[in-house]
Amino acid sequence: MLAIIGGSGLAKLPVLEVTHRQVVRTPYGDPSCALTFGHLGQQNVVFIARHGHGHSLAPHEINYRANIWALHNQGVKGILSIGSVGGIRADMGPGTLVVPDNIIDYSWGRKHTFFDGPERPVVHVDFSNPYDDGLRSRVIAAVDAAGKQAVSQGIYACTQGPRLETAAEILRLERDGADIVGMTGMPEACLAREMNLPYAHLCLVVNWAAGKGGSATVDFDPATAEAGMNDVTAVLQAMLS
Ligand code: HPA
Question: Quick count: other Cβ atoms within 10 Å of Cβ 152?
């Protein structure tokens, strides 16, 4: 069974034929919301809305450990994470789908490991390639099968939020090599790695990052975001048909 973590703009998955919902408690506290189980195409899927129902959780308030633990506990074989991002690179404007292949983490103060405390001695997982190649390839093939287009590589910068970045910060991220910027890709990806769960990220650019095309908020166009999320849904359907 594949897990899908839905981000902003994808708090529900209308194409999912829901069978049941389950509230899960974890040793790390409560996940963002109940897990939703169902079928998408031929496959069983479990879905969780990262920001909770009604988008009540800011990026730094999300209990990433509880979310990943809950999905792992259901025996999922992989996690496809959906995220909204700002575009930094010139060919990554609003409406673009990106399947990033690496991460730079600028977030701080988040619980970012399962291995802490006396009973869980430190483990240094290999995170050179944070995303799973097999799952990334499946997403990229599904983009094709759905008749959509995506940029199939890119570096995802994870900022702390909830505020958007300054233009100077985006220039710094760009100098660091980042192509897109979001607030929730970490520690989600490294917690999945700690659980040995294949993890890939499908990102939708919803605005130009600060200083790249006007103002990131003024620039945000709900119609573009909605059309983009329809593309994301089409990709999910193609992937799981
Ligand atoms: N910055 C950070 N996170 C985001 C942005 C942005 O411009 N757009 C969507 N998520």
Answer: 16
Q: Is the pTM of this model over 0.90?
A: yes
How much is the pLDDT for 237? 94
Report the alpha-carbon distance of residue 90 to residue 230 in Å, rounded.
Answer: 23
Contact 24, 17 (CB under 8 A): no
Residues of the chain with pLDDT under 70: 214-219
Show Cβ contacts of residue 25 under 8 Å, excluding neighbours closer than 6 positions: none
Q: Is the CB of 183 under 6 A from ligand 1?
A: yes
Q: Which of 8, 50, 84, 104 to mutate to test the pocket of ligand 1 (most atoms within 8 A of CB)?
A: 84
Show me where the domains of the chain are located: 2-240
Domain 2-240 has what CATH class? Answer: alpha beta
Residue to substitute in 206, 217, 219, 224 for testing ligand 1 pocket (most ligand atoms within 8 angstroms of CB): 206
Q: Is the CB of 8 under 6 A from ligand 1?
A: no
207 appears as a binding residue in the annotation: yes
Both tokens of 240, joined, read 């799981």
Q: Is 162 exposed, middle or buried (0-12, 13-18, 19+ CB in 10 A)?
A: exposed
85 lines ligand 1 (CB under 6 A): yes
